[in-house]
Each structure stands twice: as C-alpha cells, then as structure tokens.
Give the backbone structure.
Amino acid sequence: MTARAERRSFWTWGYVSDEPSLDERRAAAARLSARIGEVVEPPPVPVIDDIVLPPPRLEVPDSLAGWVSTTTAERVTHTYGGHSLELLKALRGEFDHPPDAVAHPGCEDELEATLAWCDREGYVVIPYGGGTSVVWGLNVPPDADAAVTIDLDNLNTVGEVDEVSRAARIQAGILGPDLEAALKPLGLTLRHFPQSFPWSTVGGWVATRSGGHYATNHTHIDDFVESSRMLTPKGWFESRRLPGSGAGPSPDRLVLGSEGTLGIIAECWLRLQKRPVFRATAGVEFPSWERGCEAVRAIAQAKLWPANLRILDPSEAEFSAGLSGDHALLIIGFESGDIPQGPSIRAAVRIARSYGGVVDDDAILVDDGTGQATGRGGAVGAWRNAFIGVNAGLTAGLGLLSDTFETAITWDRWPDFDAEVRERVGAALRGAIAGARLSCRFTHVYPDGPAPYYSFSGIVPRGAEAERWHVVKQAATQAVVAAGGTVTHHHAVGRMHRDGWEVQRPALFGDLWRATKRSVDPNGILNPGVLIDP
C-alpha cells in the first residue's frame, strides 16, 4: 500500500481532516455549559510551523537521509500520543521533549539500518504505530541525550493470505481500515475493532495487547496472533507459525504487550474469520445496576459468546444512551458468518429477563442475512454513536477534565470491588473537580469476571488540569490495585501505569523482564521507562 497521504493531527485524535473547526469547538462549549456548567472559550490552535522546538541533538547520516527527517512538522506530530493531557499541551504549543528525528523506513533493510545507527550512537528509540497511546507509551524521556522515533507507516501491506487456514501475514504499520479493506474482497476479516481502530496499527495492537470488538471470547489481539516477527538490537526474533504449541513458553508472549521495550514489531501472522452475515441485537433495561451485572455474569457463564455484552450503569446509560438516569442498560449483540443468531439472542434475553431485565419482543432485532439494520436505533444506537464518535479536540482546552480508567476483577469480588472503587475515586473527585461525574460500563466480560471501565468528568480551573488529574488518577490506581484488580485491562502500561504494574506483577517477573531486555537490548535504547527502567 502507499504511504498515508495525510498528516496526523498534532493536537487531537486522527488526521488534519478530523480536526474540528473553531465554530464546532465553540458549539461544543455551549452544549457543555448548558449541561454541566460554564466552561471557558476554546483556545486557538497553534500553527505548526510557528512552534519553536529545541534543535536536534544529532546529525542524520547521508545513508539514512532518504527516510529520516528532522523537520519541525515531523518532530511535532510524533511528540505526543492521544491522552487528554498530552493533547492539551500540544494545543498550548508546549513541546519540551520532542524526538530529535523521525524515521519512516520503507523496508526491513531500512529498518535494520535505522536501529543499528541508533544502537551504535546510543540514541533512544521510540517505536511508533498510529500514535494513539493514552498511557504515555511513546514519549521521549526527559533525560534522553537524543531520541529517534521510528514510524512504521510505510511497512503497511498484507503480504500473504492463507485462505485455507484463515490467516494472513500482515506488516505492522498497516492501519485498521486499510487492513479490513484488503481482506474484504476475500470475504475475510480480522474483526478486531479497538476504539482507536481508524488511526491505530496492527503493530500497535500487538505491542500493547489491545482489546477490540468482541466483549466475550475473542477479545484481545492475543487471540489472533499466530506468529510474530520483531527486530531487536541483537537481531531478528521470529516465532514459528502454528495453530498451537505445547513446546515450552510461547515466544509470542514476549512480543505481546512488550510495548516497544524489546524490539520493533515488523509483521505478524494473524488469524482471520469470515465476514459476519447473521446478526442480532437487543437493549435490555434493568431497574438496578446490581441486577444487571448478575444477568451479565449468567450470560457469560452460559458461554453463548455474544460479540457484544456491555452493561452501562444508570449514569452512563443516561449520558451516552439517553435513558432516564435510573435504569442500567445491557447491550447484547451476536454475529456470525455461518449461523443464524436468532436462537442465541433469544437465549441471552431469556437469561436477562430472569434477572429482572425488560425488553419488548419487537425490540429484539435479528438479521438472518438479508442486511436488516441491527443496533442502529433507540438507546443501543445512541450509545454506539457516542462510543465510535471520538473527537478529543471538540472539548480540549475548555476547562473540562474528562478521562477513563479500566480494570478487571473476578465475579466473587466484583460487588465489593465496585463499591470500594466508587468510594475512593468519588472522594478524590469531589475534592478535585467541580460537578464531578463518575460512571461505569463493562467493555469485556469473561466467565470468571468483568472488565469494568470507569469514566469521570467535571470542570477544573484552566491551568490546573494536570494537577487535578493526577489526584484522581492516583486514587483510581491505588483503589483498583489494592482491591485486587489489574491496573489496566486494554490500555497498556506505558509510563502512566508503571507504578501500579510494579505492585501487581510478581517481583521476580520484574527481574526476569529486565534480564530479557538486557539480552536483546544491552544498551537499553528501546523505549526506556516503559514497563521498566533500562
């Protein structure tokens, strides 16, 4: 495939064409003011060529000059990921620690030459996919002597498709929409849709163990990786392509979730499936959050494997789906390329109703392959539109502090866990944010536990965003880890969650990871500070 024709936005999610206009930002400010209280006027967006950066601390060799750049535009657009505090700094023109150069290798030979140059000179290397990290996973460390971001955007092809085994060899830099477009003529799909899908890459998904479309069964990118190929400073690391193996620890498990600390993922074989033809959807309301959660557990443990099994608490259902604010909403969805889904949706609804769920029979929508729309209308459709309509730029700089944190916990501990998290984070919110709102939904569900995803928002004084965010985030991290949950379910560790991960992981595993890193990256140049220090 050709290189991406459009420049990534440096201050919001997506590309330049995704950037909201000043009028759209003002309209968003007016809507927020009417809904949650007065917010400030949107600040102006800096002109990228007017941004002043520290000069590059390196010289690019002539042999690499064809794909390594030190221009302001390249350095600015590769400074930050997608977290709201990063985007706010970008909107304010604050770029204290940009990369000194950005490489766009077009083949594996150029990737090898770039990494060898950095390793020889001791330059920090930041592997870069789509730039959507929300956990500070692609930032240049402040103490780096010099840093090079290696953007995989030109390694973006589907190299080979095995239609018999239903798998494909895919380069790491391909974007989600481009991958699906390449597979569609074959009637195949990866069917992995993280919320960042339009702007994120296969390599980024694998490096961060992303969670995607399915709420049950196939949830993480882990489920799709058949083999992987990664370049380290010590050479290539490639696993054998197999459907499964009991031969010792899995090599792919070192690659999955490595977050750019061991090497640069160049390509993977990923398992595919037929494109869905049969679909079914229902939105079930519950008079209480607790009863709705019990229904979710029962459906998950029945192993019906719905593609969507997401429950929204009353606050989330009101804010995102237009409900009254006193009912929880359970969204159930099934899909298949081979089997009609009417029986499955009706079985799940029967279970939901046995726990007090309410849904009219005519609101259970089934497509038996005719193309009938499901999941587009009513509360389910309203939530879907809110979920896929990410545009951080609309509210950036308005004095609105909004963020999320996600975790996972076993069912036996869930009710007490939820109460403890709400109490501790709620107390921090009340002290830090005016008019704070805290809500929860399940993004993924397992037979042994849910993955709750909490959202919070409110108004803070302009300039106090980072300080107030840290208060709430620290409370959230401490609460979920102390109560036995994971510090992150699908947003990765990065630098943001490192302290919580150090508490969560076995101490000896930290030693093991450091030893592994030393063996493949002896100079410690790859993404230092992510997961561990070099």
